């Protein structure tokens, strides 16, 4: 493909993308294919000779699209949102063109792990300063980290990858992690000879969007010399609205904080941003200086240069130029429109909540704070499981479940930018219709 063809095909692709997004509602939100469907549709080997670009493009609808779950359909209410906007798509294209290897930023899962590794390094140094005879592996076996039972699975994985014990602490009736239980756990573990060193708190848990109590947890962590990492992957975007900022109270105690602009801030996947209180702690854990990456910068001093080299902040060396799409989106939407986007989606969730509350057969299972509603039919887990199975089978809308206090719960999350009030009402009508049929069967 030469530049002339690229100009032509590029314009066609923009049209295809715009048509796709503007007419996405007409596609079933959830694919009607079996895993492995693709195997019959594609050859077993790459073609020996080049194929015309148009043939490749034609196959997108024939081969690829039938297997796609349309995350940007207004009928997609599963998981959490994933960002999407036209300026962000354009910036992503430019990012590909520039194609530089930016040494910065990471996913939420990686942020949790990076914070844990930095905390581990710090804890080892602290223990060795009073017990110089202990080796690093000996110290690792004594280290203990904490998170809530509602934390994302990536926190548990960070413990596995970091080779340290990760304990899950039960939450209160609001699914919030509280200070008293953490304190009790720390006391018991210290008495058993363990070294508490890390807490991953969550603002906006994946299952039910609950908030851990930073005002209680923070001072305990500071007192115990424990690293507090705050995972706000989804909820973090809402803090651009002043009315949601009280949810951040206690953040001053945190050592690191992360949220995913790619979830709820109109930025396309992937884009996750992490803050650390003391850069030196992260760099202390990750810094290596291979010869080929040493280059003097006459203008800036050595020390700031090293601290700013973001390759010392993360696991991969190279990174895409993600900040470009943030810059495009922030400028073309402006704070006001981004706030309006968050507020609209929260309002839609509240609307859905009131529909559920008005129906005596259903119950709300967790406080609705942002764009997620957890609900269920009053009745057995089996009943709710069957309801979700039928929703999935019908393919009109897409939801996923969670488990709260041993109960099977349905999550309804406002995800797509194109979701409007009528989609929410239609979804509720659909859910209640399926529930009605189900309950009739149970009576008969
Ligand atoms: C989505 C989510 C994650 C995982 O985010 P990635 O960027 O995909 O790693 C972690 N924590 C919470 C609370 C989430 O909602």
Automatic annotation (TrEMBL):
The modification N6-(pyridoxal phosphate)lysine is found at residue 263. The keyword Lyase applies. GO terms for biological process: amino acid metabolic process; carboxylic acid metabolic process; catecholamine biosynthetic process; serotonin biosynthetic process. The keyword Protein biosynthesis does not apply. It is an enzyme of class 4 (lyase). GO terms for molecular function: aromatic-L-amino-acid decarboxylase activity; pyridoxal phosphate binding. Its cofactor is pyridoxal 5'-phosphate. Pathway: Catecholamine biosynthesis; dopamine biosynthesis; dopamine from L-tyrosine: step 2/2. CDD domains: DOPA_deC_like. Keywords: Catecholamine biosynthesis, Decarboxylase, Lyase, Pyridoxal phosphate. PROSITE patterns: DDC_GAD_HDC_YDC (PS00392). GO terms for cellular component: cytoplasm. Its EC number is 4.1.1.28. Belongs to the group II decarboxylase family. Homodimer. This is Aromatic-L-amino-acid decarboxylase. It comes from Periophthalmus magnuspinnatus.
């Amino acid at each position: 493909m030469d530049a002339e063809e690229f100009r032509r095909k590029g314009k066609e692709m923009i049209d295809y993308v715009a048509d796709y997004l503007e007419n996405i509602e007409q596609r079933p939100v959830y694919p009607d294919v079996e895993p492995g469907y693709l195997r019959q549709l594609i050859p077993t080997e790459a073609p020996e000779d080049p194929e015309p670009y148009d043939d490749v493009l034609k196959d997108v609808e024939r081969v690829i699209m039938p297997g796609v779950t349309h995350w940007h359909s207004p009928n997609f209410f599963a998981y959490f949102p994933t960002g999407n906007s036209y300026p962000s798509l354009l910036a992503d294209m430019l990012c590909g063109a520039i194609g530089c290897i930016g040494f910065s930023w990471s996913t939420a899962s990686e942020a949790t792990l990076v914070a844990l590794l930095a905390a581990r390094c710090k804890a080892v140094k602290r223990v060795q300063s009073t017990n110089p005879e202990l080796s690093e592996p000996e110290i690792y076996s004594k280290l203990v980290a904490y998170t809530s039972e509602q934390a994302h699975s990536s926190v548990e994985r960070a413990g596995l990858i970091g080779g340290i014990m990760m304990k899950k602490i039960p939450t209160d009736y609001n699914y919030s992690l509280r200070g008293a239980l953490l304190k009790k756990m720390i006391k018991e573990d210290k008495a058993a000879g363990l070294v508490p060193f890390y807490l991953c708190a969550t603002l906006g848990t994946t299952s039910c969007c609950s908030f851990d109590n930073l005002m209680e947890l923070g001072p305990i962590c500071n007192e115990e010399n424990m690293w507090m990492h705050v995972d706000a992957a989804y909820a973090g975007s809402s803090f651009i609205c002043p009315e949601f900022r009280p949810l951040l109270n206690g953040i001053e105690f945190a050592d690191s904080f992360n949220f995913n602009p790619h979830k709820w801030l109109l930025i396309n996947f992937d884009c996750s941003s992490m803050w650390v209180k003391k850069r030196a702690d992260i760099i202390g854990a990750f810094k290596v200086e291979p010869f080929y990456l040493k280059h003097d910068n006459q203008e800036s001093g050595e020390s700031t240069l090293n601290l700013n080299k973001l390759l010392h902040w993360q696991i991969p060396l190279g990174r895409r130029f993600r900040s470009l799409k943030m810059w495009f989106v922030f400028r073309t939407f402006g704070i006001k429109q981004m706030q309006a986007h968050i507020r609209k989606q929260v309002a839609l969730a509240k609307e859905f909540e009131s529909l559920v509350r008005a129906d005596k057969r259903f119950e709300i299972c967790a406080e609705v704070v942002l764009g997620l509603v957890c609900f269920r039919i009053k009745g057995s887990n089996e009943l709710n499981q069957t309801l979700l199975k039928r929703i999935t089978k019908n393919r009109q809308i897409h939801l996923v479940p969670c488990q709260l206090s041993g109960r099977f719960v349905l999550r309804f999350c406002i995800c797509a930018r194109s979701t409007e009030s009528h989609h929410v009402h239609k979804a509720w009508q659909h859910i209640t219709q399926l529930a009605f049929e189900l309950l009739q069967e149970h009576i008969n």
